Amino acid sequence: MTQRLKKTPSKMQKKVENPKVAKIKKVNIDIVTGKPVASVFFDPTKSVDCTNTDYDWVGENLYIPACVVKEEGGIVTVSLPNGEMYRMKNACKVTDNDDEGVDDILKLRDFSEMSLVHTLRVRYYKDEVYTFVGPILISLNPYKRIKDIYEVETMKEYHGCKQGELSPHLFVLAENAYTSLTATHTTVAAHSNKAKDQTIIISGESGAGKTEATKFIMSYLARITAIDSAVHMTSRGGTDEAPEQLECEVEDSMGQLEQRVLNTNPILEAFGNARTLRNDNSSRFGKFIKIQFAKNGRIAGATIEKYLLEKTRLIHQTAGERNYHIFYQLLRGATPSVLGQLYLENSIEKYEYISGSAASAVIPQINDEQEWSTTLACMKSIGIDQTMQLDIFRLLGAILHLGNVVFHQAEDGTENDQVSVPTPVTEQALEHASVLLGFSCHDMLTCMTKQNMYVGGATIVKLQSYAQAMEKKHSFAKTLYSMLFTWLVEKINMTIAPSNDTPLKGYIGLLDIYGFENFDNLNSFEQLLINYANEKMQSHFNTHIFQIEQALYESESIDWSYIEFRDNQACVDLIDGKPNGKSGIFQTLDDSCGSGRLDINSNFLFTLNQSWSGNANNARHPHYVAPRFNSDQRFGVLHYAGEVFYEIEGFAEKNRDSTNTDMRELMIRSTNALLSQIADEAAKSDACNNATAAVNATTITSPTPKAGKKPSFSSGASGNHANTAKSSGARSSFVSKLKEDSISKQFTSSLKQLFITLESAEPHFVRCVKPNIYKRPDCMNAEDTLLQLKNAGMLETIRIRQQGYALRISHKDCFQKYSSLSPSCRTLDALVKSLSTILSVSNESWQVGSTKIFIRRDMSEKLDRLLWLQCTSSTRCIQRFWRSILRNKAAVKIQAIIRMRMCKNLLYRHLTAVLCIQTAYRRAICMWDYGNQLYAIETIQRVALGRFARILARKLRNPYNRMNYEELTNHMREAQSLLVSAFAEQDFQRCTELEFSLSQIAEARDKLPLPDTLPANREEVELFILETSFALEVARETDNSATLPSLVKRLEQLEGLRAQYPLVNELTEKISATKESLSSAMAKKDFKKCGSLQHQLSALEKALSDASASPAQLKSLSLSELQQQKVEFEKQIAAALEEKDFDRCDTLQSSLDNLLIVLEQKTITPEAAAARKMELEYEKLNARRSKDFIIMARLHLALVELEVVILESEKTVDTVPGQQTSGPTEHRFIHMSYEEVNKEISQCDAQLQNAVLSNSTAEIARLESELQTLRIVLDKLPAPEKPLSRLDIENQIRAKESEITEALGAKNYTLCDSLNAELESLQVKLESIPTAAKIKQQIDTLEAELKQLIAAKQYAKCPEIEQKIEDLRPLHARLFAEEPKPQSPKKKVIGPRSPLGNRKIAVKSTFSSKVKRMSLGTGGGLSGGDSLKKPSGITSDDVSKASPLNNVSNIGANKENTSNFRPVSKLRPKVPITAQD
Questions:
Q1: Closest CA to 368 of 376, 1064, 790, 1279
Q2: Where would I find the beta strands (DSSP E) of 21-154?
Q3: Measured distance CA(961)–CA(53) in Å, rounded
Q4: How far is CA 450 from the centre of its chain?
Q5: Exposed (0-12), middle (13-18) or buried (19+): which is 1336, by Cβ within 10 Å?
């Protein structure tokens, strides 16, 4: 057999083998004896001593390869892979072909249930979940995400490939359907090129992966249509965009459609899915998605058609099952307000339609509240607003209330009494239902308890019995729910359907329908309907399979009349037909329901047994299974998937649909807009369907070919079927006038519509299989898998294909493969005749077609065996000849090796002698060199180690490394004061030593954290917070990671202490809140709480009095408030003196002294305040340079207080006439800027000219006075500085450098220090002005970034960067024009060089500048500083040297910009190193 080479997707080539694959493979060699070991398929049912019936164990070990240990008397002892030993009879051997895991089951040589299950198991554990059976695809749900098999690259690889070129996949079927759709067929009509519609029928149990398969197929179709559309548009030149970009655009639109279709799943699952015995989320309806394609090949839209909704579940559920999910979601997820509007309660047991499933109402894997939210969101996405949602919920609530309606029953217990009113208990439920449905309670009751009959033009009103009324109630609920579900599907279609103006090419339909069901003693009317639908689906499947076979065989002129198969048309006729003129199951059920007898179910069973069981001289139907005993209330049907028994209890009740014309008219007249709409649409749809059914009544589908004959697919039908159709149609038209169609008749009508659609398209089949009931990955239950394959009819399909010509080979391949068996043959016909004679076979074993040769499986094995024998014989002959050649070559090679070995030994001895001599000589040379180098190294090490030791000793002798933070701070301050004294005495050597000591102290202190001192009051808390903040800021600037964590922790600790020391306003708020709580407690007479609150209030008031007298509180008061308090204190002191209360006088005098100090600080003049502010800022700057953070914090607080004083003095100047320093008119302009005063002068000049023209003397005098005042104010204001250019600043820098040089020459270091500060500020300004080169560098950087974004296709950020570039270009052009142009090079003049050279000289942080700063700091002092309480460790000699808080970043920049300056100390001659160093 030809081994066809297959192309495998690149991402799927490397797979890690699952450990279970090795476990289930047979063992070919015994590890002890080394002999081959036979393997058989283990079957627990054939085991003699196996008693394990555990479900999981049987499923795991069924048909697994087991090693044969012993065989005797037809009994085989086998060993399972887990080591267990069992005895088994009638064992089936495992072949090599079974272990390969073939991708097409038809390739198995010996097909059986065992080989089928084992092949699927091998592929499943290798993550190959798809397997072909000819054109049919079997899909096992892996319950996990398999890597790379659904990616975009995989889709592209499958696009354009045919079946067999790649491994099995859903994409292969989707590609076949898409290819068939896009290919035009001219055989449809004479001048028609309409494409053939395609359908992909996905069947299987719930949870087998049908929905996921639908999703992957839709994704694949969206992707490949995007690829084809992009290629088509690019090839036609209709766009300039790249194919990849066009593909992404089309794919996005397709993906949105796919997402819209998938978003409808929660709605359809809520209204159409329910819990069954086998699945918690079983779909109880069929879904057919039509993906519409436009003429250009793109997806234009989609429509969803629903079939076979299980309406009987609404009123009855089997034990262990649930009603539809939406009812449980409504009761558990809806808000109380919504439930109140529906008159519902959050209790499942109170509603009859769902209370029967109360024990199974809770599903562990499903959260009804979350599902309710998802359902509402999906309703909103398809255009159902809140008003329409409430209308839907009203219908659902009405159905639940209808279930609680119960009518009067006769007193004798019979059901023949006539009823007119419900029971009092359920009267409220009927009223609620009528209100929600939008019509009166009387009309609704009349429709259910009375029947209008029209006879001879007259209307006869007939009262209904108890059973009839209950039946009409159930029918009304089912009709209402069915119409609501149909309306929802149509609403969904409105959002995803293609537009009317889009020309359509065809569609690819995806059918998702429930599978075959067979429960143990629980099969009822619902299972009969479902199995009948699957029986029809299997008939359609058989018809399609034989159409393919017939088309292929007829095209190749092959005779195939002897193929036999199982035809299930007789079973279909038994259920829905009239075989031999007798009524089938559905017709018999309808007749029994219309008979009016009490025991309808028993009469129905009796009629079936009498007609089809073979009793009473009637022929037995082959597909009808009569009950074993007459007392059995069940009957059986032999389906294609096996024998199923149905319990007849409830058959008649579930089959009835008593929704008469009165009920439908009542629903149309409803005031509920939604109910009236869907009832009207349902009436129109029924009228249309009746017309369609009348037209289709004469159309009979083609029967499946009989066994042993060629199938006939003509449009005609046999006479028996024609008579059946005529009689059935006549009866149906007659019965419809008297009563409504039954559920079975509606079901068959809907099924016929579905198959009309399916038969008009070309089908493709996917059989989804659920490998285990637990939904676990890498777990396959062979028993369940085999049962599902049987129910899907796959075993019969495989058997039919195996009986036919399973192997089809082209003429060329066949001749090339088998021509060696008969070398004399030159043609294929001669080769076939010759091999037929050799093997003694007839023409039935293989036939020659026009392009292919068709070979049966046994014939293929014979040919392969014969070819293997010939190849083996030829191989042995070739091997003998080749071995003689190899022996001769081996002898020559051995001789050459021996000679080479001898020569190598001689050469080795010579080389050994030479190497010994060379080694001795090199050793002597190396020893000499080694001695010299060792002596040099030891000398260098001694010198280096001595130097390192001296450096280390100096560090260890450094006393500052053993001091704490406070001690180092005190030493630094002492050294600074000594430095000032040394500088005053001009002892520069002492200055240098002190400067070195200061650097050591600073270095040691930087390594230590701040002292962990706890504050005693709120002022110290704020002071320490500022100190820690400044230290943290400096640590971050200098990247001092050693102290950062401790500083952050210290700052968090201090901020937490603020609550322990509240401010006055905080205490006031707490007192107010406590008083309110005390008042409420007193009103409630909670005296215990009042006592605790009064105690708290006293403590708070005491704290408030203490805080009010504190210096910090005095500083927060304004000047007027201070003066007012001063007067009050003086009065209190006078009163205390009169009373001779000297202790109180002492206390008041202390408070008055503090107040006078604060008042003195607040009454400072503006000029003194400005001078003081500059002094404090300079001292703060010095403190920052010396990193004395506590002084920085004190100075910062003093600056804040000073600014408050300045503001208050300005306000005082405005309000106190005695303190005005200018006239009233001048004061009006005192706060104006220079430009504003200029503007006022211009306006005043214009007004003065107008006054002169008008001869207004008073106005002229006033304007002249105002003009004089404005000029005085203008003289006092500083003129605005003109912004300097870069060239001006560079000129000023050069001038300052020359001045510094002159000051150095004159040894005026104080002037050098001030000039150096001005030079630093000028350099900071220079650095802040951008140059043309920097702007050009920014433009180049932005352009490079723009190119990178364009290359990465990130176009969203490109406009922003482009705008930045456009903004920088004018600035670059202006700066480039302002910069001086380079001069032509001048000839250098050689002459004597000055002692200082041409270098720029600047002074940075030298000891002279430090001395200057220290002198300023010590001389200035700290005004008002004594009022602040000093923390422990801070003496009165602390000197602050820091800048304002908002200038800290600028100081850091100045420090960086001046890092290249040389200190003055380095210009002086260095002091020689002494022994002390």
A1: 376
A2: 39-42, 64-72, 75-79, 85-89, 92-93, 130-133, 136-140
A3: 83
A4: 58
A5: middle
Residue 215: CB partners within 8 Å, gap ≥ 6? 258, 262
Q: What is the pLDDT of residues 58-102, one digit of tens each?
A: 888 888 888 888 888 778 888 888 888 888 888 888 876 666 778
Nearest to 748 by CA among 530, 568, 917: 530
What residue has token string 């250098």? Answer: 1388
- Could you tell me what percent of the chain has a pLDDT over 90? 12
Q: DSSP character for 500?
A: T
Rounded CA-CA distance 789/768 in Å is: 9
Lookup: tokens for 1459 = 């890092």
Q: Dig out the tokens for 220 from the structure.
A: 């694949």
**Cβ partners under 8 Å of residue 130, min gap 6:** 137, 138, 139, 140, 167, 168, 169, 170
Q: How are strands ordered across the β-sheet holding 92-93?
A: 85-89, 75-79, 64-72, 39-42, 92-93
Closest listed residue to residue 124, CA positions, set 142, 98, 106, 145: 142
Q: Which pLDDT value is given to residue 942?
A: 93
Contact 646, 640 (CB under 8 A): no
SS3 state at 638: strand
Q: What is the token pair recorded at 447? A: 């429709």
pLDDT digits (tens, 9 = 90+) for 383-428: 889 999 999 999 999 999 999 888 876 555 554 556 656 777 678 8
Q: How far is CA 714 from CA 198, 432, 564, in A?
A: 21, 57, 20
From residue 352, alpha-carbon distances to 260, 357, 358, 403 in Å are 36, 10, 10, 5
- For 937-963, the pLDDT digits (tens) are 999 999 999 999 988 887 777 778 778
Distance CA 76, CA 86 (A): 8
Paired tokens of 1191? 């002084």
Distance CA 1083, CA 1078 (A): 9
Q: What tokens were used for 187?
A: 């055989």
8 Å CB contact between 1193 and 1026: yes
Q: Flag whether pLDDT at 560 surpasses 70.
A: no
- Mean pLDDT estimate for the chain: 76
In this predicted structure, what is the pLDDT of residue 410?
56
Beta-ladder partners of 460: 453
Q: What is the DSSP string of 1001-1062?
A: HHHHHHTSPPP-PPPSSHHHHHHHHHHHHHHHHHHHHTT-TTTHHHHHHHHHHHHHGGGGS-
Q: Which tens digits make up the pLDDT trace of 920-940?
A: 999 999 999 999 999 999 999
Q: Which amino acid is at 1384?
A: S
Residue 324 and residue 361: Cα distance in Å, rounded? 11
Question: How many other C-beta atoms are found inside a 10 Å radius of the C-beta of residue 184?
Answer: 13
Total length of the chain: 1477
- Cα–Cα distances in Å, from 990 out to 993, 1305, 1471? 5, 22, 11
* Side-chain-facing half-sphere of 1378: CA atoms under 13 Å: 16
* Tokens 């219309």 -> residue: 594
Q: Average pLDDT for residues 1321-1329, to the nearest whole number?
A: 78
pLDDT value at 976 more than 60: yes
Give dist(CA 1034, CA 1451) in Å, integer: 11
Closest Cα to residue 789, out of 308, 213, 112? 112
- Going by C-alpha positions, the residue among 650, 647, 758 that lies closest to residue 701 is 758
Q: Do the beta carbons of residue 641 and residue 655 sit within 8 Å? A: no
Q: What is the CA radius of gyration of the chain?
A: 52
Task: Give φ, ψ of 1451 to 5 degrees.
Answer: -65, -40
Q: How many CB atoms lie within 10 A of CB 1218?
A: 4
**In the prediction, which pLDDT does 1118 show?**
67
